[in-house]
Amino acid sequence: MILIFRRKLMYGNRFHLPHRKNSAEVRTKKLDSSGAVIISMAQSIGAPCEPVVKAGDHVKTGQLIADSEAFMSAPIYSSVTGRVIAERNILGINGNLDKALVIEPDPKQIMCEKIAPPVINSRADFIEAVRKSGLVGLGGAGFPTHVKLGFDPEKYKIDTLIINGAECEPYITSDYREFMESSDEVIKGAKLIMKWCGIGRTIIGIEKSSPDAIRHMRDVIEEKKEENITVKPLPTNFPQGAEKVLIYNTTRRVVNEGELPLAAGCLVINVSGAAFIAKYVQSGIPLISRRITVDGNIVNKPSNYLVPVGMTLGELMKKADLRLQPDRIIFGGPMMGQSVYDPDTPVCKTTGAVLFFKDMPEYRISACIRCGKCLRACSMNLMPTEFMKAYEMRDMKMLRKLRVNLCMECGSCSYICPAKRNITERNKLAKELLRKLEKQQGKQ
C-alpha cells in the first residue's frame, strides 16, 4: 500500500508555492554596464573555457574571448567593447575558484565585424552553429545545448520537442516575458530544432497560473497555422519545470533512473533557449546578454532587465532601485537559487533572476519529528530524511540504495520541514560525496 501511495505522489505532486510574480507585466528594459564586467570562464556544467585574449587586448562586443576543445563546453564571447584589464580568479556561487576576464567598457560600443548569420545546410551545420553561439541551458542547469541537440538518431528516436515554459519558482518572470515579447522567435526556434533534428511535434508547457502566456501563444500558433506545435497548460505545482516532471505532465512518459530524457523520446529546451536559437540564426549575435528578473522585499519596482553577461552584482544593486541595503541576495529563485555576498559576483549565462531581501525570518533547527511531510513533498518518490542519515553515517551503500542521485535538489523537502532542517543541503553534499568516491574507485 505504501509503495502504491508513494508512486501516485510521484506524478500527482500537489506542492504549491506562493507565486509572487510581481514583475510579470513589466516589459523588459535594457541595462548597459558602466563599470567593468567580469566574465567567468565557467559558464556551464561542462568544462571551463580557456581565454584566447589576454590583459591589454582590446575586444569588441560579440568577439570570441574564450573556448575549449572539450565536447561538454561552449565558447564565451565579450558582452562589451573595451579593454581586457585583468585575468584573475573569482569565487563562483558553487564555491569553486573560477578563472575570469575583467573588461573595462569603452564609451562607444561596437559590434564585432566578424558577426554574421550562420550558414546552415545540414543537421551538422545546425548543431555547430548552436555550439558557436555559446548557448547553454538557460533554465539554470547550464547544459551545453549543442550536446543536447547532437543526440545519436540511431540510438534515440526523438518524436517530441518540449519547450519548457513552466516557470515554477516564485518571483521569476523572465521566461514569461520571453513568451510575451518574443513569441515569434519561440515558434521559429522550435521549428528550426524540429527541422534539423528530425522531430515531428512540439509541446509548449506553460503553467496554468500564466493564462495570458497560454492564450497569447495559442493565438500566435493559430495565426501561423502551425499544426505540429501545441500549448499544454500544466498544473501549477512545484517543481513543474524539472525535466522529468515536465515530460510526464506533457506526454505521460516516465524517464527512469539513470536515463536521459532522450530515452523517453523527448528533447527539452527552455523557452528562452529556443527563442535565442532563432535570434542567433537570424543575426549571428552570440549569447552575450541575459534577461533577468530583479525582485525581492526591498525592491521598489520589480522588473525584468536585459543585462550583459558579466555585469557585477554591485553594479546591478545600484540600478535595482532598492529601499534598503539587502542582508540576503539570491542568484536564481528562492527554492533552487544560491545566496551570494561578494559584490564582484557576475551575472552568468545561467542567471535567470537576482533577488534582494531584508529582515528575512531566521529559523531554529530542531530534531526531526518524523512527520513525513518531506516524503509527500518529493516529486521523485524519494526519502530525504534517510539521505541525511546515510550521509551523516557516510553509508555509501545506503545512499545508492536510496537512489540519492535522483534528487533534483529542488528544495521542497527543506521548505516543507516543520523542524527547519537543511535537508536539501545535505542531499547535495551526499551526491557530491558519492560522486567523489565513485570517481576514486574508477581510477583504482
Structure report:
The protein is an alpha/beta fold and 444 residues long. The protein has three domains: 31-109 and 288-357, no CATH class; 123-283, NADH-ubiquinone oxidoreductase 51kDa subunit (Rossmann fold, 3-Layer(aba) Sandwich), CATH 3.40.50; 364-443, no CATH class. It is 31% helix and 19% strand. It has a six-stranded mixed sheet with strand order 1-14-13-17-15-16, with helices on one face. The chain has a four-stranded antiparallel sheet with strand order 2-8-7-4, with no helix packed on it. It is globular and about 65 Å long. Mean pLDDT is 91; it is low at 1-12.
Count of β-strands: 17
Spatial gap, N to C terminus: 43 Å
Order of strands in the sheet with the most strands? 1-14-13-17-15-16
Overall shape: it is globular
How many domains make up the 3D coordinates? 3
CATH architecture of the largest domain: 3-Layer(aba) Sandwich
Report mean pLDDT, rounded to a whole number.
91
The number of helices is 14
Largest sheet: 6 strands, mixed
Structural class: alpha/beta
Helix content: 25-40%
Quaternary organization: single chain
Look at the structure and give the CATH class of the largest domain: Alpha Beta
Rg: 22 Å
The CATH homologous superfamily of the largest domain is termed NADH-ubiquinone oxidoreductase 51kDa subunit
Using the coordinates shown, work out and report the CATH topology of the largest domain. Rossmann fold
Sheet-strand content, in percent, reads 15-25%
Unreliable spans: 1-12
Brief characterization of the structure:
With 444 residues, the chain is α/β, with parallel strands linked by helices. Helix content is 31%, strand content 19%.
